Amino acid sequence: MKTKLFLLLFISIYFVHANDFKFGKVSKEEISETQHPLEPDANAAILYKKERVVYNYDYERGWSIIKEAHYRIKIYSKEGLDWATLQVPLYISGSDEEKISSVKGFTFNIVDEKIVSEKLKKDGVFVEKINKYRNKASITMPEVKEGSVLDIQFRVNSPLYWHMDDFRFQYAIPVNNVHLNLNIPQYFVFKRHSKGFYPIKLNESRGSRSISVSYRSEDDPSGRSIKTSRKNGTLDFYENMYEVNASNLPSLKEEIYTNNIDNYRAAIKFELASTQFPNRPYKNYSLSWEGVAKSIYESDNFGPELKKTNYFEEEVDKIIMGKTDDAEKAMLIFEFVKSKMTWDKYVGVTCSQGIKKAYKEGTGNVAEINLMLTAMFRYAGLKANPVLVSTRSHGIPLFPTTDGFNYVISGVEVMDNVILFDATEENTSPGILPNRVLNWMGRLVRKDGSSAQVDLIPKEPSKELHYMNARINTDGSVEGRRRTQYSNQLALSFRDVLDNTDEETYLEELENSYGEMEISSFNIKNKDEFSKPVVETCEFSKENQCEFLGDKIYFRPMLFLAQTNNPFKMDKREYPIDFTFPRQKKYMINLSIPEGYQIESLPENAIVQLPNQAGTFKFKIVSQENQIRVSVSTEFTTALFPSDYYDALKEYYKNMVLKQSEKVVLSKI
Amino acid sequence: MRFLTFILLFLSTHFSFSQDFGYNSIPEELLKNADAVVRLNQMSVVIKARNLMVVSSKRVVTVLNENGDRYIHAFAFYDKSDKITGLEAKIYNKQGEEIKKIKKKDFFDQSAVSGGTLYSDSRVLFMRYTPTEYPYTVEFNKEYATPNTAFIPKWNFVDGYRVSTEKSDFTFSTESAIAVRYKESNLEEHSIEVNKTGNRRNYSAAYIKALKKEPLSPSLNEFSPTVKIALDKFHLEGVDGTAETWKEFGKWIYDELLVGQDALDPHTIEKVNSLVKGVDDPKEKIRKVYNFVQDNTRYISVQLGIGGWMPISASEVDRVKYGDCKGLTNYTMALLKSVGIDSYYTVVYAGSQKRDFDPDFPVMQGNHAFLNIPLEEENDIWLECTSQITPVNHLGTFTDNRNVLRVTPSGGEIVKTKTYLDNENHQLTKAEYFADIEGKVTGSINILSKGTQYNYKYRNQSKSKIEQEEYYKEYWDYINDLSLGKINFKNDKENIVFEEELEISAENYMSSVEGKLLFAPNISNRNLAVPERCRNRKRDLIIARGYLDEDEFTIHLPENFEPETLIQPVSLETKFGSYKIVMEHKEHGILQYNRKLLIKSGKYSKEDYELYRNFRKQIARYDNSRIVLTKM
Prior knowledge:
The structure holds 2 protein chains of 2 kinds. Chain A is an alpha+beta fold. Chain A contains 11 helices and 37 strands. In chain A, the strands form 8 sheets. An 8-stranded mixed β-sheet of chain A has the order 6-5-9-2-1-11-14-13. In chain A, strands 26-27-25-24-31-35-34-33 form an 8-stranded mixed β-sheet. In chain A, strand 34 (615-624) and strand 35 (627-636) form a beta hairpin. In chain A, helix 6 packs antiparallel against helix 8 (366-379). By secondary structure, chain B is an alpha+beta fold. Chain B has 3 domains: 2-236, Sandwich (Immunoglobulin-like); 243-416, Roll (C8orf32 fold); 422-631, Jelly Rolls (Sandwich), CATH 2.60.120.1130. Chain B contains 12 helices and 39 strands. In chain B, a hairpin with a 2-residue loop joins strand 1 and strand 2 (52-63). The longest helix of chain B has 17 residues, at 608-624. Chain B is globular and about 90 Å long. Chain B starts with a helix and ends with a strand. The model of chain B is unreliable at 1-17 (pLDDT under 50). At the A-B interface, strand 7, strand 17, helix 10 and helix 11 of A face strand 6, helix 6, helix 11 and strand 28 of B.
């Protein structure tokens, strides 16, 4: 028995070792497998993914990168057939283009218990020009059906030696084995960052390499002479070698209230930090957040743009003439930029057409608008600095990389505080930023290039206050007055909604959003007073708010304002829950009951709390004669909950929904 | 070339209208309900020869707000055989002063591949302009020449909802002797002027007000004014065509695009023949061949030149085992032919919004191909060849109930696809529920779905467990603490019936008030959606597809609880359908709840809209209604 076990062990070790995924050598077991051993739901799986990156040097063309990839993909079901097409982005930078070559592929099936392979031909490979910056290669495999195993191999030659796409290890389908191998000459120093929930180990080692180069050399180092001679030489250097071997990476699934799924994907990013070529000065690209900020600050389309003032001086002088209060000056300049400039919907940390031109045209990208704002603030004597940001869709920049930031706003230091401004949107106000910006930390860069972290998520909760006075009628309808008030971030989105719809359409949508409601005397206050909460008032009437059972009337004390749905329905959750910003809702409701009825019972008062007081729901109801007074509040003190809060949050909502669904009972006198 | 320049010059003089593009000159009536006003929409189409059409257009749009940006239409789609000779845009401010000019070289050039297509040679030139204020006006001038006279631009006097038109002007003329056919729709209702002189026709209209979108209304296509034009002899990507009648047009498709594309190698023919060996029933043969296609191919769309209209050959599909709708349809047709079954390549406008081929107006059209198989003494069979899971003869809402073009060797014919009768879209739910004193309900549910209801659900079986759970939590979103136990599906592809077997439980389903329990007996099929209110409804009510739901629930009450009252029998009969509830206290502690809802498809008057909403409101209220359970 013991020997048998030993033997089995031995065999399995041997098997694992021997199975080195040679291109074109697919086992019968792989093809006949009908479901993924760890995720039986999976429609397809990446059995193996290998990427190899090496550098090449050519005297005429300089350095280039050769990337080789091998994918082995298993199709389990018909829904998985999409994975039989592989798409490879090919980047373009000016006249340099990445090129795909040596595309090879085989589809393996079992026919009559024999492995049959079908070769990928040229007509299954397409290269298409997408736009100025990118081409796309598509590889689609022949003869694919349920059970097929695909082997695909290709090579990309890239003159863009400074650029490497993220190496991804996790996909929407499981990945059984990945192998990544990079050899990078000593001249290039890359920063490596691994990210995701699933830890990836990067092995590093060093090896030597020499390449022979034939080159022409100018005899006169000043370059004035045109006499050159041909020379041969060898270049000896060492290479940093990086290796990843990982296995059994689970598939990546989207869930609601998730910031950006890419934040959780297992991947490694390689970013060029510095270059040190023989006989050339050392050039630092980026190393730390400080360095990243500094290098952005020093780039031509950032710092120097910030220093220009002459184009606006005249107009800004007019605006701040005679003003001494810094806060007032800031407000005036902010409103001026907001009304003067229209955002062209491009994000980026650097200017594209230049600030002057943007100012003249009245449109610009994020950097142009907010650097212009910062420059004007400074000109007016305020302590203003640009703040670099990574937007929500760009993901959380966990590691210092030059493309970690894709957006810039402006920060004004007042006492120990930094007040943030974003002039790209009409409805923003100091400290109130568009939701896309509310992503973790920003980096404030000072004039000397030094920098500091700034929290972008507002501390103060955004509030939604509902006041309602209503009368319950014996036919089950209600009528009354409502007043709803939105502050901060909620006011921003409400104002955006108002701007994007005409009043008639807005009213129709409002009426329909509560099922069916008649609205009259509608009024909006403070629509353009951005520093104040925006207030909506109206009179309303709505049918069917009561149930009649026997001769009793039942209704929810919050009527149509009750939340009847728990947003968290699933049993488990993997990723943190992100509400974008802290929120508070309050309801003050007065109801009068119809004549001839009395209150038989009211729901009980209740308080529901999240652990550590992170959230509180309060429900209070009192009655006096024919009047009912309800006051309800729910508040989160934070915007981001770790996933282990999920059960508590789900329970919190459950109790809240239950409480709000409870009924007042009226009986006939 | 010189000749062309001359023509263009001529046209541009013709276009020099003196119009004020300032916002203030827009009549008040055109601003109502509008996000944009088309100030001038002008196009001239000149047929120079069977294979040369020159199109010049000028479009001026005043955009009132962000939603109106989509009506600028400042783009040019093209492929290799088209030649864009002029492209320019001008931007005007509110006062009508020119503030910017965008030349052809400043337009962005980009691949125009839509989602789902792997590769195509069609491209698009488009401009990017960020408006600094609203309103602003864009003038867009375009001139191009194309050999593809199969597609003469269709003229729409109305571009969509929430856009009004100040002036619309369309001129078609031909310098060729080829006969021209015109199809004018809804022109009278919109007082559109038509001017016919020799080989030239001019259509013009002014002051068309913006339309508001209304739910459950006919598609814009059906009631808005349009002009369609076709040539009896045309050209398409290097191929000449003829089409005076659908018969002829179909013949052309058959002869030029299909013939010879059906060759298969002997090995494959042998293989399919062995598949159907010993099978006599043609339906069974079709099933076997269709399964073979579904198990061995997949959908990949590649559109190149004439390949946008001509299927790749059956032998090519056979080799790579993928193709687009044309290729896979042609492949299936070839396989069926090799086992002695005739089937016909059929062109259709696919999509859940029905769109018909016009029987009176043969012209190149459609966006999809599928297969028709006539059977003796029985209804036709239809095969959707791009799907790996659709059953034989299941059209679903994708291709049901519409006029399509069937292509046969003797020519084309317009036929109507299968129409699902209201009661064929059937869902039968049988369930047994147990309620306890704590307010919890558990139950086992069995749902059988057919017709379009099958169509909505049968893909659920291939979803992951988590997605299935999500589906039911969404489907029964009015039940708060819903937990799902067993989820089993049976997909009977032969009879096209989808069966769901479910176990559910819901904590706190009943709420208790003063020791009594409030209980809604309709646990698992509430139709709560009520169409939105439409003040001042303008257009007919369309119920595109009807359905029949039947529910039989047996409910075991908590121990020692009895209903105070039952829901009184309900029976609503309307022209839109009927609704019935019968509730019985069968025996001690057991309630029987039976429900039947029939919605009838059809076209109803605009006045009926409010009646239909009332019907829906009543249904929603009854479906939500509750009874009181008291302790004995």
